[in-house]
């Protein structure tokens, strides 16, 4: 099995950024939406000037932000990806895609019609983050969904050449169970946090389990 793409999301401090900089992550996510993990783009810009992130790509996560708000963040951080984690209209996603040189990822909260949603967004979105549906929360919930549906989502993503990240409650203890479903990508935030900070030991344990699994399968 090839190593899945890995995204560590919710980097909320300089120290978090130092912790994840030398990890196996391919993508680092910053939250520009209401959340305990919300960051300020000017601060992130300063952190990124001081820390070598070893070529990892930057994902900026928004929930129902305006085009102007996204552009303001882009002036500080030339992110590689804009992740739409709310109910943004397709017209806004298209406009951002055309104006900024970024990939567009659409977050979908997993439910019975997620496959249809993936198909309807496949042209505009370069990738999907399928996350758990938790009332009153958009993301970073630490809650898993039933991963037996992952192969169906993977088939659709491959059919349309979209990236696909499985999110929601992934942590060192359950990563092998998720890997049994051969995800294209994995996205996690709270599962590598201790006392609200990204934790090096948890990251090491997660990556060791993931790389061992990949080696033997
Ligand atoms: O992480 C947040 O606090 C958050 C808040 C609002 C919108 C999105 C948010 N996170 C987006 C992510 O991509 C997270 O990595 C994803 O929800 C998984 O989080 P977790 O269950 O904690 O691993």
Task: Kindly report the CATH topology.
Answer: TIM Barrel
Cα shape: globular
What's the structural domain tally?
1
| Low-confidence parts | none
Give the mean pLDDT: 97
CATH class assignment: Alpha Beta
Bound molecules: the ligand O=C(O)c1ccccc1NCC(=O)[C@H](O)[C@H](O)COP(=O)(O)O
Strand content: 15-25%
Q: What distance separates the N and C termini?
A: 5 Å
Rg, alpha carbons: 16 Å
Helix % is 25-40%
Total of helices: 8
Walkthrough of the structure:
It contains 8 helices and 10 strands. By secondary structure, the chain is of the alpha/beta class. It has one domain: Aldolase class I (TIM Barrel). An 8-stranded parallel β-barrel has the order 1-2-3-4-5-6-7-8. Strands 9-10 form a two-stranded antiparallel sheet. Helix 2 runs parallel beside helix 3 and helix 5 runs parallel beside helix 6. It is globular. The protein starts with a strand and ends with a helix. 39% of the residues are buried. Bound molecules: the ligand O=C(O)c1ccccc1NCC(=O)[C@H](O)[C@H](O)COP(=O)(O)O. The site of the ligand O=C(O)c1ccccc1NCC(=O)[C@H](O)[C@H](O)COP(=O)(O)O has 26 residues, from strand 2, strand 6 and strand 8. Keywords: Amino-acid biosynthesis, Aromatic amino acid biosynthesis, Isomerase, Tryptophan biosynthesis.
């Amino acid at each position: 099995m090839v190593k899945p793409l890995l995204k560590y999301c919710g980097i909320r401090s300089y120290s978090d950024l130092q912790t994840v900089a030398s990890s196996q992550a391919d993508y680092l996510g910053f939250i520009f939406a209401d959340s305990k993990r919300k960051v300020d783009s000017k601060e992130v810009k300063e952190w990124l000037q001081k820390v070598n992130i070893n070529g990892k790509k930057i994902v900026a996560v928004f929930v129902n932000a305006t085009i102007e708000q996204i552009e303001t963040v882009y002036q500080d951080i030339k992110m590689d990806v804009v992740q739409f984690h709310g109910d943004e209209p397709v017209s806004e996603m298209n406009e951002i895609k055309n104006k900024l040189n970024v990939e567009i990822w659409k977050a979908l909260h997993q439910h019975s019609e997620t496959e249809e949603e993936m198909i309807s967004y496949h042209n505009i979105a370069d990738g999907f983050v399928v996350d758990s549906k938790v009332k009153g929360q958009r993301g970073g919930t630490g809650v898993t969904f039933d991963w037996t549906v992952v192969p169906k989502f993977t088939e659709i993503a491959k059919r349309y050449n979209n990236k696909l990240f499985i999110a929601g409650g992934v942590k060192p203890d359950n990563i092998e169970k998720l890997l049994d479903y051969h995800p294209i990508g994995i996205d996690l935030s709270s599962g590598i946090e201790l006392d609200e900070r990204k934790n090096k030991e948890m990251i090491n344990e997660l990556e060791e389990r993931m790389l061992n699994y990949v080696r033997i399968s």
